[in-house]
Amino acid sequence: MDDPETSFVDLTELGLGADGVLSNLNWEIATTADIDGDGRDNVLWRNKATGQNGVWDLEGSAVKGSSFLESLNKLDWQLVDALDVDGDRDIDLIWRNATTGQNAAWRMEQQGDSWVKSESYFLPTLSDLSWQVV
Ligand SMILES: [Ca+2]
Ligand SMILES: [Ca+2]
Hints:
This protein has 134 residues and is an all-beta fold. Helices cover 3% and strands 45% of the residues. The structure holds calcium ion (2 copies).
């Protein structure tokens, strides 16, 4: 059993206190997906105030680890889904611009404790803003 004092150290960056409570309400769950391919879904977070993005690695109901995803500080972009759109078996992040209706995908790559986008590309724009990814 990990010492909670040390196992939560990196999580404070994602707003989690030592008590395991994510008290910063600007973090919103964007979606869940198995971004690291270990067979368990990860929780993907987006900070609606700063544009930071993060990932939780869950084991059961416990947060085993957390890492940052590359930030996107243009706040009208919403992280709407994470799935493998190009079929290379790595998860891609799907973004939708709530103002313009543009859609984009990020191909992700893990570098140490964080995830960076290795490539980004636009998907067809759907300018009718009443359409949402579900
Ligand atoms: Ca996983
Ligand atoms: Ca992919």
